[in-house]
Predict the 3D structure of the following.
Amino acid sequence: MITFFRMVKEDIQSVYDRDPAARNTLEILSSYPGLHAIWGFRISHWLWKHNLKLAARWLSHVVRFLTGIEIHPGATIGHKFFIDHGMGVVIGETAEVGDNVTLYHGVTLGGTTLEKGKRHPTLEDNVVVGAGAKILGAIVVGAGSRIGANAVVNKPVTPNSVVVGVPGQVVVRSKPRPADAPPDLNHNILPDTIGVTVADLMKRLEEVEAVIAGRASDHPLAGNIAKLEKLEVSLKGHLYEHSYVLGNGAEPGHSHSGNGKSHKVLQAEAEHSGHPHAPQEGLWRGEDFSI
């Protein structure tokens, strides 16, 4: 019983530490469904451990009705666990959650098999899971990692990593976070792995085209190729002028992209943006991003 009340005190302090909207203890006790769900879980987990499984499941069902958060009483959850907002959170029976873990609304710690035994994920200490993220299967999310909003994670995550996308792409931080560092709640600092991949492919394509063009200049038909390229440029110019006459809005001789920038400007920006290369061995590196 003493341990339970000590954990309740820790849970209240975790709200102060991770939610700037928290003003006082009375407000926390009365207005945080995530906290109510955690306390309901701790009681139902005690019942589950003492083989009162029906009572544990019934209490879990009542807590879900009151808070919108479903935590199976068989799950294992550590100290200073915090669920912010909470609606739609689901934590499966064999899930294991370490200390100082933070979940946002819509998070699922789900299983991927109908077999008995370990089938839900393990979250080590100091993990932050963004809104709507799904972590599926008996995988381990390493300590100090951050799961981006709406990511779908189905592979193990190394410690001190950031995961984004569907399926989740793992970005290894350039510098490990200290064990005593506060939770990393900077959801606005997430790498655009898809955009970087496309930019890298376009850069490589330009390099290949440059090599091909260099070889073609030595070919006996190089003169004819040059004439065809000039003809292509001329035809494009006529097409742009024609589109202007039809009311397309682009001035003759000035090709623009959909965002209002000319193609030359976009090309110059791409050349000076310093895009990192695609991931090696399936892992991105933190030095490629601001994380």
